[in-house]
Design brief:
With 240 residues, the protein is mostly helical. The chain has 9 helices and 2 strands. It has one domain. Helix 3 packs parallel to helix 9 and helix 8 runs antiparallel to helix 9.
């Protein structure tokens, strides 16, 4: 099995885990969960189509600007929708913080960046920074989630720190990816460049997982800043 096939399996599984977890956490009944999962799945399919047709590849499609839109537009859309719809906003606040943190466990698949770098298919510093950063955030996510579940308010400082590291990792990965990709914004000319990130299956990372997980990071920050509640076992304890 080659890296692309393995990546397809891993990234599809990761997307399924995140979609399932968020659909269950954000919805109070089966119908709402199916509807939420359908919206996320539709987004996933759209990204697959963009990757398969190379619509965002620098040689055949929109290139770096298009990839930037594919990352930024979903983040902006999700944030606006949650901010504008009060019922959805309140629902988001009811999701256990441990669940929002725990979904980031899928980022251990950052090992794919390291494998692609070792195979000469992605450049430094993009691949090592993105890969090891994701591995760290993904590996520590279940530990932080468990600490929140058990300790509540005592975990607040740890969550702030972990969440900041998670955001910084995503920002650094996207920034280095753009600067390594052929196009007008390229500043890092190490070969082979990061153009494969606009192809299948790798577009699933910047086009689906990064925007979704970045939005979850924002939600965690908002919960902490507003003094929302952390789950401690079956009880709720205020962080204010």
């Amino acid at each position: 099995m080659n890296a692309d096939l393995i990546g397809s399996i891993e990234l599809t599984a990761a997307a399924a885990i995140v979609i399932t977890a968020l659909s269950i956490g954000l919805s109070l009944n089966v119908v709402a969960r199916i509807r939420t999962a359908a919206w996320f799945s539709g987004w996933f399919v759209l990204v697959v189509i963009l990757a398969a047709t190379r619509a965002l590849h620098y040689q055949y499609g929109l290139g770096t600007p298009g990839l930037g839109i594919a990352v930024a537009l979903p983040i902006a859309t999700l944030c606006i929708v949650v901010a504008r719809i009060e019922s959805l906003r309140e629902t988001f606040h009811r999701v256990p913080l441990s669940l929002l943190i725990g979904v980031h466990t899928v980022r251990v698949l950052g090992i794919s960046f390291i494998i692609l770098y070792s195979a000469g298919r992605l450049p430094a510093p993009f691949a090592p920074v993105a890969g090891w950063g994701d591995i760290f955030v993904g590996a520590t996510a279940p530990l932080v989630a468990w600490h929140v579940y058990r300790q509540g308010t005592n975990a607040r400082a740890m969550v702030w720190l972990w969440n900041a590291i998670g955001v910084a990792d995503l920002v650094a990965a996207v920034g280095l990816g753009v600067m390594s990709s052929p196009g007008p914004l390229r500043l890092i000319f190490a070969e082979p460049g990061s153009a494969i990130m606009s192809t299948l299956p790798w577009l699933l990372i910047p086009g689906f997982l990064v925007p979704l997980l970045f939005t979850v990071h924002i939600a965690i920050f908002i919960r902490l800043a507003e003094g929302r509640k952390l789950t401690v076992g079956s009880a709720q304890v205020s962080t204010a």
